[in-house]
Amino acid sequence: MKYKLKEIGEMISGGTPSTKHTEYYSEDGIGWITPKDLSNYSKKYICHGARYISQTGLDNSSAKLMPPNSVLVSSRAPIGYVAMSGDYLATNQGFKSIIPDKSKVLPEYRYYLMSNSKYKLEQMASGSTFKEVSGKTMANFEVDIPDLGKQKRIISIMNPIVQKMESNSQINDNLVA
User: Fold this and answer.
1) Given the DSSP bridges, would you call strands 79-85 and 45-46 parallel, antiparallel or unpaired?
2) Residue 93 near residue 32, CB atoms below 8 Å
3) Rounded-to-integer distance, Cα 66 and Cα 85, Å
4) How far apart are CA 104 and CA 150, in angstroms?
5) By CB atoms within 10 Å of each CB, which of 53, 71, 89, 150 scores lowest?
6) Rounded mean pLDDT of the chain?
């Protein structure tokens, strides 16, 4: 069945606390993800990026706390990086993240669906300085969603493949180090 993304989950835009306030950032606060954090990232789940923000930074910015299993989709610079939150975290404004409505779509299925939508999202982007997918465009992006049983079957096929890829990537990283 075809759905717009806004019909099968809550769409959340990220934000950046002011860098003029050092108290908005911390050494080990709330994980804060930017598209750059996903540029060479090949795992399904992410818990933090290169920087952390403080609770004060979260409270004084447009950043929102995303629950575990939210699907993080970069919407600019570049478009289409996808990961799932492995913990509570926040993103910068380069994301349009999705908290899936689990009665319609399983978070892991949404992850695989969005991972496979990069080209379509890039085609929908606009802007002169750099391309971006707006919140409205992302919310109205149409996807085919099978019933929950079929989603579970697809996930059961994809998960072992992704786990093997992540394992091989870790082995390769160890060989280089």
Assistant:
1) parallel
2) no
3) 7
4) 12
5) 150
6) 94
